[in-house]
TrEMBL record:
<dbReference type="InterPro" id="IPR036047">
    <property type="entry name" value="F-box-like_dom_sf"/>
</dbReference>
<dbReference type="Pfam" id="PF12937">
    <property type="entry name" value="F-box-like"/>
</dbReference>
<protein>
    <recommendedName>
        <fullName>F-box domain-containing protein</fullName>
    </recommendedName>
</protein>
<keyword id="KW-0175">Coiled coil</keyword>
<dbReference type="InterPro" id="IPR032675">
    <property type="entry name" value="LRR_dom_sf"/>
</dbReference>
<feature type="coiled-coil region">
    <location>
        <begin position="23"/>
        <end position="61"/>
    </location>
</feature>
<dbReference type="InterPro" id="IPR001810">
    <property type="entry name" value="F-box_dom"/>
</dbReference>
<feature type="domain" description="F-box">
    <location>
        <begin position="68"/>
        <end position="119"/>
    </location>
</feature>
Amino acid sequence: MSRRTSSSINAEICLLDTQIQTFQRRETDFQRLIDDLQKLKDEVSDERKVAEAKRNELEAQKVPINWIPTELLIQIFLSYTDFDFEEPTYRPPVVISHVCSRWRNIALSTPHLWKRITLEGIDKRDVAQTFLKRSEAVLLEIHYSTAPKASPTEETYQMVKFLSNFSQHFRRVESLSLQCKAALALVYILPSINDHLKDFPRLRHLNLAITTENPSFIEAPNLLDKEQDIPKEVELSKPILPSDSRLVRLQLEQVPIFNFPVAFIENLRSLELSYSPRKQSSRDYYYLKMSSLCRFLALTPRLEELILVNTVPYFDVRLPDGATADNADHTLIEMKPVRLNHLKSIDWTWPYTGDVHRFLSMIDAPAMEKLDLWVEDLAQKRNDTLFLRGYTSPLSPHRFIRSIVNYPSLRDLSLQCAGEDTTSSVLRKFSFPALEKVAFTNVVPAARIGENRLPVLSIFPRLESIFRDPRLPNVTHLTLSHFKICPEAGRVEAMFGYMPVLTSLSLDSCLGVGRLMEGLQEQQIGASKPNHIFGTAGGGREGKEASRGVGGNRPRRGVKFCPRLEALSFWGCQDVDFASLRAVVNSRNRSINGFAADELSTFKGVSHPPNGAIQTITRGPQDRNTGAGVHGHTTTEVAKMGRKIKPLRKVRRQAAQLGEPMPSGAEGAAEAPSANITSSIVAMQEAFQPASIIYLRVANCKLIPQEEAISLRDRGVVDVIWAGSD
């Protein structure tokens, strides 16, 4: 085969070079076209994305929740994250951020959503770091509990590790909750608490809890020894120096109370203690003594709320004048009642009947407004129970406590106890002159069913058996739960007669409600003689016309009890029927139902007061001089208006000690009838023009159908809610 010459090869190379140049030019042109097309494609893609975003925005506007402004959504998310969930691994901010892109953007841009950090052990350190980073500089709420299956050694290690990881963030901690099973783990937090101004300058809420029942302090004896540093002779009335501590709420469960600096607890507003009753006695166990609690409370002069959860202090104190030198029990510590001028509320669960008066006799709280008691029946093993609660003296414990405890500012009283006997024995040594809201609950351990398939409930006792003074002239709200209303004649009338200004009545799972409703219905009060009440000051002609006119001597009908009643609520009352409910509404919504047009026309010169209000009535000088309306005949209605609250008579010496002048002669004889006539006229006005029932709640009452309950709106009941019937 002959070889090609150089010239032929060069010629072919030139040809290929020409082709390559042509291909390169074409490739460049195609690339330019591709770039232009890609640019067009990118522009189209961007326009598509904009259109899709607008479309998605329009689609989202069809969903009502997306109408909510961002500011309002943030507030909703904050409220959701404030809920206490049982599962510690459930983290609301994370859930919110995974719903949609809008919610995620809102969550990530709201640091307050990430301020609450809940940890169980130290396994989720990365989660904690994420929350710390996203919370930025806002104040933190840290809730830490040790792992459920951790041993005491592991629990202590976890606590130490937790404190070391979070110590650099303690300065912005606002709320701290630590829960562990053994006492030893809490020892490591005490140094930071003792130096609270440096480590916890912004701490407002502190919760320390030992979750083990009857924990032993054998491995942490220094927690028990702290109480020895507080002098026994602490002056309860001694003023305390101002403190810079921001702590306002303290919760302790099974933790000895004297483990904090005095300055740390001085500004407390709320204190919650939980110490379950001890089942055994040992030097390694902690007992909350009444003397210790009194000294602790004396260090919190600004306390407003006291909560005792299943806690009864061991009673080891007595008042200074509680016993003489001959019969004094020297094993008890002499101590004055603790003066808490700002205490407004006490919530106490599961004391015994005798514990209530013994404890409250040591608390002097003139400004207290609310008292909530859950009273427990005395255990059958009485000796052990009484010993563990301080009933060790052979003398009567009543020698060492105040006889009558007075709370002049108490407005709200709630009592939950089991049975009629317990209800009648708790409050007999208390005085509540300003009471406005009362709630009684019968705690039934096990539901008992009678022959008629209705639960067997205790009878609600007389008010004379419950209170030292059954007169409740200021009570406006009454709630009864799980009681049976006594069918005895006069019982219901006596109860309502003690509460003349009642405006709201609530009944929960009560029986005998029909008998109670009868006392609220319209009744015949009697015949009136208005000219004897008002005299003839307006002219003899008016008196004669009134005497033989519309209101002469004909019988009158009105409500005898609770003329200001406006609200009725029934939950699970299986024997209340619609007929009795309608009768009560008809008797009180008189002006709306159209049969009270001339009820008050016989009272000349007396204008009609507003709905349920009391009108001021004055007497002119001529009435006092002539005695008109004083020495005349009283009406038959006054005698039948219901229970009349009369003040106790004062002896002459007692009145002189109080600085009250004694009425004498005709002047004194005229003053008392004047007050009686005024109150009688007001009572009659309210009886014949009672307040209208405007609020009704019915839930699970089988004898009141929904249609009939709703029909009461036509009779003037403005707010009616019916929620099912079993």
